[in-house]
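Case study 2.
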Amino acid sequence: MERHQNISYIIATSIICALFLLAPTKVFAVDCPSTTTNGTATISSSCTFPNSVDGVDYGTGSTNTANLVVASGATLTVQASQKVATGSITLQGGSIVVVSGGEIKLNTPIWYIDTDNDNYADSLTQQYAQTTAPTNGKRKSQLASLSVADCAPTDNTKWQYLSGYVDSDGDGYGKGSAQNVCSGNSLPSGYASNNTDCNDGSNQVYISHAQCYKDSDADGYTAGLASSSTCLNASSCNTATRASDSTDGAVATSYTAGQLRDAANGSDCDDSNNAKWRTVAGYLDSDGDGYGAGAYTTCAGASGTYVANNTDCDDSNVNAWRLRYQDVDNDGHCPNSTTYCVGNDTGYRDSCSSYSDCYDSNANAYPSSTYCGTANRGDGSFDYNCSGSATTCGATYYASTSGVVSCTSNPRTGNCSTGTGYTANGNAVGCGVAGYQRDAGQKSTPTCAGFPESSCIASGAYYWVLGTPGTQGCQ
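Prediction:
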């Protein structure tokens, strides 16, 4: 089919050429596409190729497999004395006009001259349409660019123009106005991408003081612009490991005290101390419990969290942060005014009703307690009201259960005594001791060896009538 189309094209071309011998030359301003996509170039609007030798190229060696497609409504015009090379042509409703003297060369490669073999053509306008390679020839389809001509045809390290500035002293800093510099991937020696050199006659000075920041303590963090020099050198405006230093907070060993930096690494809040550079506001919270301690801080190093309070009584213990009074039995009364550094521990409170609890292991024992106990408070004592001694509760007294009042001699000259277990002179039995409730104001007539009762009264011996049994309570 392709062979048939080409033959048809040749016949059609002959007729068109014959017609154009009599017709004026028609030139289209639009350039035809000179590159292919997978070997195919499509002309979708009327055009002409710009160079005297031109066309589309695809393949290697002496074979051109490019297919030039002329779409419907489009016209390819081949100018007088112009050679258009391609592998083949497919007319898809389009047309071709060959002006007298023009020529279409099928299955013919297109070559450029690439003297230094860097894949950039010496000239973009000088092409060759022939089956054999010219000297230093490079196929059009193998060039790196069809828009960039080699700026140094005999130097394969340079092929394109880049914008740069003269760097006379080779310190990497240029000066003056931008120039188009013949280069490779980057600018060659003698040129820089910037024009910030304040002295291009010395490679020891190149940075204006307006670009340098003070770092007096050599911690890698700066504190304001330098102002001591108009043009500084590498040691004065250091660029060592500033980037990493600004993130990890470590003191860079390559820094020297008094050096300047070429950029501001944050604002150093204390440029006289290389352990501090970070601006903070608050109190250090070392244990991370949300409570700080110590003095108010505005400048710190890399680590540490700062909070708005300084109430932590132990900033090394995350479980302790406040001072409280001890109240083990939780009765609201504390044994003393000593405070303890605790957190949410039980047995402590912020304030107490009193600070003289005589026994902090029993909630019924505290100053002015009205509790009446028949059992000791826990330590053997019945002193529940912290008076210093145990007293019986109210008017309830208990006596023992047996015995008689007896007189051993004439009560007027001797003594009367109670029998075993009975109280004398109204005293109760001991705290927590079982006995019988004493009926106050009652007594029996004792046998006093024939002497009247009144004689025993003189000695203070009473024989009480005993009532309901129970246990003596005290407070």
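The chain has a mean pLDDT of 78.
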